[in-house]
């Protein structure tokens, strides 16, 4: 009996086998599959080869070559992605490059991308703007110094950018030095500006002139009326307003001279470009190199070439003559009877 007890105790100390679990029923498996969320397959944008078989392919012709289809996801068009490599240049090298630019170029560069804007507009790049403006101040007819109430980037936009500072249109022809503003006629003729003010009020308000009329901001005008009504001593208030306007008007004459000089230089530049196309020495010399002399062209068109210069495309344009412009000019001359007229 003791032997049986010892044998049972030895068996009891042995590790017991775990019974195998029965496989789950089909119903439980189906419930688990339904309750579990299904993940969508990851969409790939790899190019796939598609065999294109033309509809007019005759039997026995060699099989058409596979055409690489465009990816499902459209890529970036143009060259917008090339600017990202510019920011990988060391900062010291970028600053050395930017130091050779004018204020207008720095302004346009800051609008190119966010990364370039952060580089050009940070405080460490302020000396680049200062050096660029110092070169401008050394010109024969320089603009006035940058006012203290705006920064150099804002001043560069006011000087060189022709867009309206209120709506962004390309017709910002009207400027006001005292307001540091460039605006278009649509904005001046809108509810933002007021043109109904007497001479006494005009002497104490910041105005902009357009079409022989003076405009001021509606908010500034209403604020001026409220302060004048609430002031204890109106003479002191008007004297202070007049002094403030006089202080902001400093540099008006220099700005007008610089703007007039710049407009004159621009007119001369456009005139030279126009002459380069309109005048006979450029286009006709190009024709003469190809064997088409002035006398031969006049014989083809049965008249003087100056008579049809107004009708020829490109003669009155103020842009450089490109290959497409030469093709248009050749096509037009061919229409006058020169069937074998060569491309310029």
Summary, kept brief:
The chain is mainly alpha-helical. It contains 15 helices and seven strands. Strand 3 and strand 4 form a beta hairpin.
Structural features:
344 residues, mainly alpha, 3-stranded antiparallel beta sheet, disordered N terminus, disordered C terminus
**What is the rounded Rg?**
39 Å
Distance between the termini: 125 Å
- Residue share in β-strands: 5-15%
Helix content: 40-55%
Order of helices and strands: HHEEHHHHHEEHEHEEHHHHHH
Total DSSP helices: 15
Q: Which structural class matches the secondary elements?
A: mainly alpha
Across the major sheet, the strand order is 5-7-6
Biggest β-sheet description: 3 strands, antiparallel
Overall mean confidence score, pLDDT: 75
The low-pLDDT segments are 1-5, 27-37, 48-59, 64-76, 337-344
Total beta-strand segments: 7
General form: extended
What does this structure look like?
The structure is a single chain. This protein is mainly alpha-helical and 344 residues long. Helices cover 47% and strands 6% of the residues. It contains 15 helices and 7 strands. It has helices at residues 2-13, 26-35, 91-98, 103-110, 114-120, 126-137, 152-160, 185-188, 199-202, 218-230, 234-248, 252-278, 280-289, 294-301, 323-335, and strands at 49-50, 67-68, 174-176, 181-183, 193-194, 208-210, 213-217. The strands form 3 sheets. It has a 3-stranded antiparallel β-sheet with strand order 5-7-6. Strands 1-2 form a two-stranded antiparallel sheet. A two-stranded antiparallel sheet has the order 3-4. β6 (208-210) and β7 (213-217) form a beta hairpin. It is extended, with a radius of gyration of 39 Å. The chain starts with a helix and ends in a 9-residue tail after the last helix. Residues 83-132 form the F-box domain.
